[in-house]
Write a structure and sequence with these properties.
By secondary structure, this protein is mainly beta. 12% of the residues lie in helices and 49% in strands.
């Protein structure tokens, strides 16, 4: 019996810790239409945080190219695009990096954090000067 309780407690602690992190896979949701668009995997590399498109949910767009990207990323597949770059943890936020919107062809300053009331929602905020737009991405379970 003690073994079962120990295993259950370990599972709950592991699940609780996992759900309190930004790292992992998130479903992006269009802030205007509510449409689920893609799955982005958020990961850490060399002390910075990045987000890469690992799945496109609309089958008509799976082979889309990033026509509005610049430089080496121009006309490369959107699938695999690193759209969130160089985020740094500062308190409860990750910021000082950028996020790219492939459909608009715009790069924004970015700030992300887990939602205060629901750790399965990620608040993603893009800025241009003092104007911003916010999306809430859903954790992939």
């Amino acid at each position: 019996m003690k073994k079962i309780v120990l295993i259950a407690a370990t599972f709950l602690v592991t699940f609780s810790v996992f759900s309190q992190t930004i790292f992992g896979k998130w479903t992006t949701v269009d802030e205007q239409t509510g449409e689920e668009k893609s799955i982005v995997e958020i990961y850490e590399r060399d002390g910075k945080v990045f987000g890469k498109i690992v799945e496109i949910l609309n089958s008509r767009h799976k082979d889309a190219l990033c026509e509005k990207c610049e430089g080496d990323e121009k006309n490369t597949p959107v699938l695999g695009l690193v759209l969130m770059k160089n985020m740094e943890k500062q308190g409860k936020y990750y910021k000082n990096g950028t996020i790219f919107h492939p459909e608009r062809g715009k790069k924004y300053k970015c700030r992300i954090t887990l939602d205060d009331e629901n750790p399965d929602l990620l608040q993603v905020r893009g800025y241009v000067a003092f104007v911003y737009a916010t999306q809430y991405w859903k954790r992939v379970k």
